[in-house]
Amino acid sequence: MSDQRRSRGRPRTGVRESVITAAAALLAEVGVVGFTTKAVADRAGVAESSIFYHFGDRAGLLREIIFAEVGGYKAMVDELITDDVPPAVGFERLLGFLEDYYLRILPGMIAVQADPQLMTGIREHRPAADAGPHRAVEPVQAYLAAQRAAGRIGDVDRRAIALFIIGAAFQRAMARRFGAGRALPTGKQVAQQLLRLVAE
């Protein structure tokens, strides 16, 4: 009985992911004005009720777009730590991954900022989920701590260095979004400067 109850109205496996993909693409194309649950459902080829089932409402779907890849980010940093990747390579990988990540989620972030109701929904959801931009700092700090333990970097303020990395990636993503990526130092150049900052 419970299995029947769980399956009743549940979209097939993969619907959630396809909705997120369709929603992100639609948002990048039309912005927040054309970003409706009906438009997303049409793009994904699912019933609009599937969106409400999985995400609650439009704000919930936007939250998911913004935070969907956090797990991939943490997994990437864990891999850097497990594989003992030195800063000369690790910094560039971090910067590249974060830049691409921010580039993908910028339309969602802009949409939230443009809609006070959506912004309120995000703020109300954040404390319960402990989600937000500040959580990006912790994985980088963990990587820096591992490199410090390995004797590859000095006794630096790891939180500040993590913020440098994240901030640089975000700024480059913004520049690329507005077609000005070449106006800023490359990720490789930023990584090289960071190496000088953290040198033993």
Can you tell me about this structure?
- The protein has 200 residues and is an all-alpha fold.
- It is built from eleven helices and no strands.
- It has helices spanning 2-7, 15-30, 37-44, 48-55, 58-67, 70-82, 87-114, 116-129, 137-149, 158-177, 187-198.
- Helix 2 crosses helix 5 (58-67), helix 6 packs antiparallel against helix 7 (87-114) and helix 7 (87-114) packs across helix 11.
- The longest helix has 28 residues, at 87-114.
- The termini are far apart.
Weakly predicted, low-confidence segments:
1-12
The pLDDT mean sits at: 85
Distance between the termini: 63 Å
- Strand count: 0
- Helix proportion of residues, in percent? over 70%
Largest sheet: none
- Helices, by number, come to 11
What is the overall shape? elongated
Structural class: mainly alpha
The sequence of SSEs as H and E is HHHHHHHHHHH
Tell me the Rg in angstroms: 19 Å
| Strand percent estimate | under 5%
Number of domains: 2
Task: Give a short overview.
This protein is mainly alpha-helical and 200 residues long. It folds into 2 domains: 1-56, Arc Repressor Mutant, subunit A; 69-198. The protein has helices spanning 2-7, 15-30, 37-44, 48-55, 58-67, 70-82, 87-114, 116-129, 137-149, 158-177, 187-198.
